[in-house]
């Protein structure tokens, strides 16, 4: 058993195509079900099953109560079984569109995809969507399983028509192999052994094909790459760098380079749980020790000295968006690429892909389950390989900074070349020197709240008080900025994000100049306010939440904006048809509906010190 290879594959396709039933049949036929499981299956089949008195093999996989009651797969279910030729890890992925993110999760680690189609329905939209995601996630071997052939009397013409339609659709998806198999998961035809009820089909059964298909990627023939997962320092005499070899072969004595720093060394030891060994290949988890002390952290990469990968901080990538809230350019996220986690921003959405045709269309946003081409900018350079070359080193996920939910999965196509003549200019006069000249501590006081909450009124009085004390200040007001710096922006979510990005950068420059800058913007999204905060040093950003009830804001509305918005004349108006995320822990929380403007200013002055 130890010499057997392991094949990871997924089953995918549209709802009710029989994915769970097929896996249940494979488990049963491979004798991977214990006696007590069979008894439980018989009981569950009577309670939840859809096959009358017969066993419902889908229940072996559909473990969630909601799945059993609805007869669908929601979560990704992993199952393990083996034959005398191979071990298998199979992921049963959901068919419903709203669970496409779960399907992508299962595909990210698979070597092969079994795409099921109902013989009665043909190629459906979800079949196409899953096929494109399979291609995008780097799976190059596909089994096209035409299921429920028993319900069309095992008709060859039906099978041939479906295969032709799928081949026409998938021509540009880049699959290395495509094996079409007619079968009945429920009856067992062509699942484990060839069926006599399909005499016109001369190919292998599904199990015969899975036992023999070659999905190797020749990762060991490529240059050595080891993303560092952990630096092990149990005592003063040992420093080891742990990780899984993502590519190539490493041997004792090999010269290596550390990226992105560029430091060099030589492999001293290769340690595994059994002890030391002379070499390690792609897929092995190892600890390396080096001949000399080198500064290496989690997320760095050890690579072959004479064949290093690229290092960059900006990329073009394909992205599958997995969140209910749409993606807009300019919003910051956490980016996790191999073992490294850092800040990043989608700076541009270049196009959106049509799931049916693969055509690219211009887009300003990506919605749930949409695929697009984007530009990604990271806070620091990382070593990488294009996803087409190495899935581990070219794949990444986007994580929402506030909820820590995974919102997108991406694949790097190539690095975007930055101008090499742009450098940070060393300045003789520093921010500290400017602040000392002005005898004040520069900071950014960021006012946020609904339109009509009193932000501008409070900011103006605050500046008047500071000016009277001889402080050097400047106000950035939302309405005023719209006349110049942001005159090209509207009020869509994407435009609001870009507006705040610009203002935050300007405010940062003003604090560098030694000023106290007062920023008065609705700034409705918590993520953009966090992005602004991240630009400033400790204690330099003071968030002031002007908390005023909506009805009071409408009562104060001398411009008539709320009335226009309620008549539908001002779309995307914050507080009505566009959301406002109130601050969770602002430095100053004002209730302008209860306190006077003077009292509100006093609270801010106390916080500023």
What does this structure look like?
Strand 4, helix 5 and strand 5 form a beta-alpha-beta unit. 40% of the residues are buried. It contains 16 helices and 30 strands. It is globular, with a radius of gyration of 30 Å. The strands form six sheets. Strands 7, 8, 9, 11, 12, 13, 15 and 16 form an eight-stranded antiparallel β-sheet that branches. The N and C termini lie far apart (71 Å). It is an alpha+beta fold. It has four domains: 208 residues, P-loop containing nucleotide triphosphate hydrolases (Rossmann fold, 3-Layer(aba) Sandwich), CATH 3.40.50; 86 residues, Beta Barrel (Elongation Factor Tu (Ef-tu), domain 3), CATH 2.40.30; 106 residues, Translation factors (Elongation Factor Tu (Ef-tu), domain 3, Beta Barrel), CATH 2.40.30; 176 residues, Rossmann fold. Helix 10 crosses helix 16 and helix 12 runs parallel beside helix 13.
CATH architecture of the largest domain: 3-Layer(aba) Sandwich
Radius of gyration: 30 Å
Weakly predicted, low-confidence segments? 62-75
Determine the fraction of residues in helical runs and give it as a percent range.
25-40%
What is the CATH topology of the largest domain?
Rossmann fold
CATH top level label of the largest domain: Alpha Beta
The fourth-level CATH homologous superfamily of the largest domain is P-loop containing nucleotide triphosphate hydrolases
Work out the strand percent: 25-35%
What's the total number of strands?
Answer: 30
Number of domains: 4
- From the N-terminal CA to the C-terminal CA, the straight-line distance is 71 Å
